[in-house]
Amino acid sequence: MARRKTLPESLRAKLELAERLTALRLELFGDRGGPEMARRLGIPVRTWYNYEGGVTVPAEVVLKIIELTSAEPGWLLRGKGPKFRPSHRQERGDPSSQPAVMVGALLRTALQLLEGGAPPEPGSATARFLESGRSPAGEADGKLDGPPRASSAPDRDMLRADRGRGEREWLQARREGRCLAVPDDAMGPVLTRGMTVAFAAEAEPPTALDGRMVVARMDGQVFVRWFEDRGDHGVLRAEDECERPMRVDLADDDPASIRRVLWIEAAR
After folding, report:
1. What's the pLDDT tens digit per position in 81-136?
2. Is 97 helix (H, G, I), strand (E, B) or coil?
3. How far, in Å, CA of 39 to CA of 213, rounded?
4. What is the reported pTM?
5. How far is residue 77's CA from residue 247's CA, in Å, rounded to a whole number?
6. Tell me: domain 127-267, CATH 3.30.160.160, correct?
7. DSSP-derived 3-state class of residue 138
8. For the chain, give me the number of helices (H) and strands (E)?
9. Three-class SS of residue 265?
10. C-alpha angle 95-240-221 in degrees, rounded to nearest 5
11. SS3 of 59, please?
12. Which terminus of the chain, N or C, has less C-beta within 10 A?
């Protein structure tokens, strides 16, 4: 009698991802929403349905799906946690609006899960820079002067992989001491320990940082977290639900201690 074979981990991950992609498409666009999802991703309709059937999804497509739908990275890749970020639930009534929360990079995690290969180190020659939710107002000079706003151009406020501009701004950030190695895994799988982020040179009001990834200095320690503006105070939240949120008293805290994350160095 033939023994039943156990599916390889990589194949199981692909099939589970395919099921979640189907569920995501059904919830956002309905039974016949495949063409709309494909249009927004800029891929052929047949390719999208191949992804739903279990074909390997390139990491860049996974990143774009997260950016377009505001799906929780943990849910999409692992099936754990809530399906959407809170801001997405507020914006679901307007299908043309862009998500307010920008995920910086899941490239290395996605490659490891979907392709079964060990990712290269961020400092290698294949490294590239992913833009982390820069608002349209600050694109020209690298400064962010206000809260993000919707744009008629569908790719204007999304994840970017602009190697030339990324390298220029990254080098400038290094010269000015605005780069930080992620000190823990609290933001996994969005960020993992040892990845490097570059943060803004200019301080911004809490309202402009609401829902953004930030670098925060508190009690002599440095954290990379999601920031929530609560009016008289702010909250720093990790991607890992086991990590307790941290309260920031905005009235007493130095505003320069919280800066927006602009670029994330990720492996190709």
Report:
1. 888 876 544 444 444 443 333 343 444 444 444 444 443 333 332 334 444 543 33
2. coil
3. 28
4. 0.45
5. 29
6. no
7. helix
8. 9, 8
9. strand
10. 115
11. helix
12. N
Return the CA Rg of the chain: 19
Q: How far apart are CA 113 and CA 251, in angstroms?
A: 43
- What does residue 218 show for φ and ψ, rounded to 5 degrees? -140, 130
CB 165 within 8 A of CB 142: no
Amino acid, single-letter form, for residue 15 = L
Residues 6 or more apart whose CB falls under 8 angstroms from that of 163 comprise 128, 129
For the chain, where do the domains classified as CATH 1.10.260 start and end? Answer: 9-115
Residue 196 has pLDDT above 90, yes or no: no
3 in the Ramachandran plot: left (φ > 0), alpha (ψ -120 to 50) or beta?
beta
The span from the CA of 135 to the CA of 123, in Å, is 27
Nearest to 189 by CA among 79, 27, 90: 79
Contact 224, 103 (CB under 8 A): no
- Residue 78: phi and psi, rounded to 5, are -120, -10
77 Cβ contact list (under 8 Å, min separation 6):
17, 62, 106, 109, 110, 113, 189
For the chain, the residue count is 268
Closest CA to 159 of 261, 228, 36, 259: 261
6: which 2 tokens?
């156990």
Q: What is the pLDDT of residues 48-65, one digit of tens each?
A: 988 998 888 888 888 888
**DSSP-derived secondary structure letter, 71:** B
pLDDT at 5: 57
Are 172 and 231 spatial neighbours (Cβ–Cβ below 8 Å)? no
Output phi, psi for 266, to 5 deg. Answer: -130, 155
Task: Domain 9-115: give its CATH code.
Answer: 1.10.260
